[in-house]
Amino acid sequence: MDSNIAWIIFFGALATYASRAGGHLVLSRFERVHPRIEAGLDAVPAAVLTTLFAPAMLSAGPVDLLAMVVAGIVMLRTNLMTMFLAGAAVLVAGRYLVG
């Protein structure tokens, strides 16, 4: 591995850890978090998933689209882990069968 890539990975991991630890330290200083801040923090996982999902949806093939649709339907009925497993299973099986 190129040493530049190793440094990029190291500093990226360090920045990620610092941002998470910093957020925890800041929020731990408050006894109570304002409901608007809490609502904003609760929306972060959905925003991150959207940023991962939208580009994939726009450049996806038919098998990928089918996996996303199945994952969306399963998401409405079950929990997050089941959704990921169902989408991954359809994706793997579809790519195996279609090629």
| SS-derived structural category | mainly alpha
Integer tally of domains: 2
Residue fraction in strands = under 5%
How many beta strands in the DSSP annotation? 0
Report the helical percentage.
over 70%
Q: Give the H and E element order.
A: HHHHH
Strand and helix map with partners:
Elements: H1 3-28, H2 35-42, H3 44-58, H4 62-77, H5 80-98
Helix pairs in contact: 4-5
Could you explain how this protein is built, in words?
The protein has 99 residues and is mainly alpha-helical. The protein folds into two domains: 1-31; 44-99, no CATH class. Helix content is 85%, strand content 0%. The chain is built from five helices and no strands. It has helices at 3-28, 35-42, 44-58, 62-77, 80-98. The longest helix is centred in the N-terminal third of the chain and has 26 residues, at 3-28. The protein is flat and about 55 Å long. The model has no long low-confidence stretch (mean pLDDT 89).
Which key terms come to mind for this protein?
99 residues, mainly alpha, flat
